TrEMBL record:
Gene3D superfamilies tied to this protein: Hedgehog/Intein (Hint) domain, Metalloproteases ('zincins'), catalytic domain
Family to which the UniProt record says this protein belongs: Belongs to the peptidase M48 family.
Cofactor(s) in the UniProt record: Zn(2+)
Organism: Paenibacillus phytohabitans
Residues passing through the membrane, by range: none
Cofactor binding, per record: Binds 1 zinc ion per subunit.
Origin superkingdom: Bacteria
Residue stretches making up the Peptidase M48 domain: 241-363
Keywords: Hydrolase, Metal-binding, Metalloprotease, Protease, Zinc
Protein name: Peptidase M48 domain-containing protein
Cross-referenced InterPro entries: Peptidase_M48
Keyword Heme: no
Amino acid sequence: MNTPILVSKDQSKAVQEIKVGDYVYVAGLDLVWKQKKVGYSGGSQSSKNTRQPGIIFISYGQEQYLVVTPDSLFLMPDQTLKRADKLTIQDHLLNEKGQKVAIHGVDSGVYRGGFHHIATDTQEPNENLDGHLVIANGIVCADYTLQIKYHGDEHKKEFAEMPTVGSKAYNDKYGVVKDQAIRNKNIDIDFTPSSEIAIPKRPADALAFISEEDAQAHLEYGQFRDHLDPVSRSWIDYLFTQFKLHYPDINFSVDWNNDEVNAYAWISNGERHVQILGGLVRSTTLELEGLALVVAHEIGHHYGGEPTYPGSTLSCEGQADFYGARNVMRKVWFGEFYISVTEKAISQLADFFGVASTDMDKQAAFMGKNTNGCEHPPGDCRIETYNAAVDLKPKPACAG
Ligand SMILES: [Zn+2]
């Protein structure tokens, strides 16, 4: 919002004020600029209450900045287009004359406000991308038509190989570059870097959804959605809203930048917590339903009752599974919804537990463990437990 777009040689307009039929300054890869009519203009309502996570902040040039969606595209000196969530301080942006502009910082975080997009037309762009490059706050970037085109499989793959801003792989490679402008709050936009969003700190003895060994196997063998994937993030936002209605005493949180595959329950200072880690949310085996059952398991630790961990009021793993599937899910998903959501959840979790079983040695070692105590039963036992809960049968013996 309010991003100035060049509409003629020496005039710019805030993006949301550009309407269909207005003129805008456009070019192709040759950067020969001319005015062309806008054929598409649309976006989300601008409101200070619209909380948008997974947004990219880029600072560049002479204390300039842009706040964009992760799929926004920028023209690179080698004439390729690069997604905003893949930019690094080693990249250069281009100004309208094709001159390089240094990037000082790239960060992901939460933005309060709306976004607006424009395009000259929605036809398939030609090889030179004629009419589909625009100048936003002095920088050459793609219009909405190109942005949508790049959602396609052919480009998805090339971007998937580049680390995403905020991920561990990215930080390991490029370091965390904190931008001075954000830190000093001397900019007029409401953007909070994800590294500065407070997340409840979990104690070492927090109870996990899966064992450390299994979580490690998932990291090695699992497949994951993109680091900033907006769909799985909206599932979690939705689920936390639903569960909070029924369990208002629990503090729900997501540690989005943590790539580990797990979820936790704990009590500290008398406060109940449930936390889900980014890696688990991004696991391709789980969708809304499977994630719901994971959250239900964590709530099961809090309210599932006996048997509990020694010296604790938190339920053992098998009991958390059983109570989560039988009571928590039934409370949150009413009537027929309970059956359809939980059955989908069970099938996704069967897939999820299967991922950790790819390493046969690891699985053998895991299966041989005594699971009659409080710890995590093997995956097939957990599936059996969920099915028993749906069918209102007793908890299976394997679940402790
Ligand atoms: Zn657990």
